[in-house]
Design a protein that fits this description.
With 384 residues, this protein is an alpha/beta fold. The protein folds into 3 domains: 59 residues; 200 residues, Rossmann fold (3-Layer(aba) Sandwich); 91 residues, Rossmann fold. The chain is built from 12 helices and 13 strands.
């Protein structure tokens, strides 16, 4: 039984019925939060019983927006390992580093989590056809879960997206549109098609449920560390749904009484060629400006103006965290180092977090004995 209660605007606080289909807030065009009856859940749920369930995203079913677990759109997502990487940590002059390896998910990235929940919820609310703009991985995941649900999907992505992403969209039967531009251009065209043809838009944070799948990374990190959160979480921030979701998970767990008051410092990592969040953080701005001429080898981080910029920046600042940009050359070298030193296949986006940890240690922002979790958001076979 889900404790789903209602939807709430992240800016103006307007509430919406959770059993109706919604995208953004109709008053201020901001993303919507999914809210739960956590007071009742706190009285009725025992956190230690969750460990007896299968290691999947759906382990947390009471805290997900589902009415009937048997009708979930499931490919085996979630339950990814938290790997201690001592040899790599030593090279970074750190002693306690873990890697949350999301490359083990179906479709090879953490996007599977968000799409599993979003497609499940949208299908339950009557959606028959989807559209999604993507830099790559989200499109592949959306195509796979739409296929699993037996529904049609239209994917808009840059024509220079990684070939592996284009191929996986087509292989899953998606209607693929390659556009001349970046993900913001794909988003504009996808939104126009959604309005014209009545398709449901699965774009990042334009619907409330992808973040619910991503937040389960936070629940898993807490559980795997015996409910004692790390000191720092380093996250590759493109659209930022995962970072926002992890922070939401910690807020929910705090209300449930499952964790104490301590929270990790959040680090948002972006490439030098596309760093709108880093720039806004440094300038103490509440939102990002469009990063002009965005370019990077890490396709998932080529998001010049994320919709969730305000939510990301709030979470980073509330946690006492920071934002940092790293070079493409260092990212590529780190994928090689991780493969040879630990046997781990890392997407460029994930490798960026280890580069950032190294630089933050050099700056003494990270201390040698701090407990640090880095997110590898995809598998190395996704790299061009």
């Amino acid at each position: 039984m889900s404790y789903l209660s209602h939807l709430e605007c992240s800016e103006c606080g307007q509430t919406y019925h959770a059993h109706e289909l919604h995208n953004l807030c109709v008053k201020c065009n901001a993303p919507l939060w999914v809210r739960y009856d956590l007071d009742r859940a706190q009285k009725e749920l025992d956190r230690d019983r969750f460990a007896a369930r299968p290691a999947s995203l759906w382990r947390w079913q009471e805290l997900l927006p589902i009415d009937d677990l048997a009708r979930r759109i499931d490919l085996g997502e979630g339950g990814t390992p938290l790997l201690r990487i001592d040899r790599l940590a030593a090279q970074l002059s750190l002693r306690q580093v873990w890697l949350k390896d999301e490359g083990r998910n179906p479709t090879g990235s953490f996007k599977a989590r968000g799409m599993a929940v979003a497609v499940t919820r949208a299908t339950a609310l009557g959606v028959k056809e989807f559209v999604v703009p993507t830099a790559g991985n989200a499109g592949g995941a959306a195509a796979a879960y739409a296929a699993r649900a037996g529904l049609a999907i239209h994917v808009y992505l840059p024509q220079d997206a990684p070939p592996a992403n284009i191929d996986e969209c087509r292989a899953a039967g998606a209607d693929v549109h390659l556009i001349d531009g970046l993900i913001n251009d794909a988003g504009r065209l996808a939104a126009a098609a959604a309005r014209e043809r009545g398709w449901f838009d699965l774009a990042t944070l334009k619907e409330p449920y992808r973040i619910e799948g991503k937040k389960t990374m936070g629940y898993e990190i807490a559980q795997d560390l015996n409910w004692e959160l790390p000191d720092v979480i380093v996250y590759p921030a493109g659209g930022g749904t995962g970072l926002i979701g992890i922070w939401k998970a910690f807020e929910e767990m705090g209300t449930l009484g499952w964790i104490g008051s301590q929270r990790p410092r959040l680090v948002a990592v972006q490439p030098i060629g596309c760093q709108p969040v880093v720039s806004a953080f440094a300038a103490n701005q509440p939102a990002c400006e469009l990063h002009q001429n965005a370019h990077t080898i890490a396709a998932g981080l080529r998001v010049p103006k994320p919709l969730g910029d305000r939510l990301m920046l709030r979470a980073i600042r509330a946690s006492g965290g920071t934002a940092i940009a790293v070079s493409d050359d260092d990212i590529v070298k780190m994928t090689e180092t991780a493969r040879r030193g630990e046997g781990i296949s890392m997407a460029y986006e994930g490798a960026a977090t280890l580069v950032a940890a190294s630089e933050l240690r050099r700056q003494d922002w990270l201390k040698p004995d701090e407990k640090i979790v880095c997110l590898n958001t995809g598998a190395g076979w996704k790299n061009p």
